[in-house]
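Hey, resending since the last one bounced:
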Amino acid sequence: MISFINVGSGSKGNATLIYDEKTLIQIDMGLSLKRVFGAASAIEKTREDISAVLITHEHTDHVSSLIRYKGKVPIYASEGTVGYADHIFETEDSFEIGTLTIIPIRTSHDAKNPHGFVIFSGKSRLVYLTDSGYIPEETLPYIENADYYIIESNHDLKMLMKSHRPASLKRRIKGDLGHLSNVDSAIYISQSVGPNTKAIYLAHLSEECNTEEIALESYKKTFLRKEKDLAGIKLVCLKQHEMTKGGDE
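The structure tokens again:
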């Protein structure tokens, strides 16, 4: 089994706890210790139970509190991401932390060396992929037919273009080094889901250029257009200010 608690997801901070019966890890540390440890306590865990923290990239909303873990929790990052990382991982080179196996996968973002992760516990597999303008071709085979997806669904394109954001920021967000729109995210995942897929969790929703209702409706319409069935697959939006439990219950 594999389960998770998303502590918060969005431009104001990101952190996710992923665990099975024996091992607890964390992805990103862009939120306060209080929030992260509060989420851990919901599964009767403490900081001492966190075996490692994996970093996707170096932007502030993913690493703002990471220094608080230095020397206390092993930090895993790609080359050039965190100067004080304890372990450097390479794209597509798997490694183990306790009973979990992790494969770093390439993403496309305006960061030094951004990655997502495929995480295995036994036969259960979770894909974690956010902050990416598109999904690179070499990454696609790794995300096929996962049990669970935590996937970016950042913005509604019409809302983004009508927003009061500067033109340069709009170009960045919708560009290849920016963020996946609802529709682009849904297209990728509609091509990736399979008989093992149980749930899709939409992450990093923009508070200004998206809503949960629009993101969910975009996914449903895109799956319908692609003639892919969402029946039996749970579809959930992660939140910025509330934790969300997911995975095997």
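The two ends are 9 Å apart (CA to CA).

Sorry for the duplicate.
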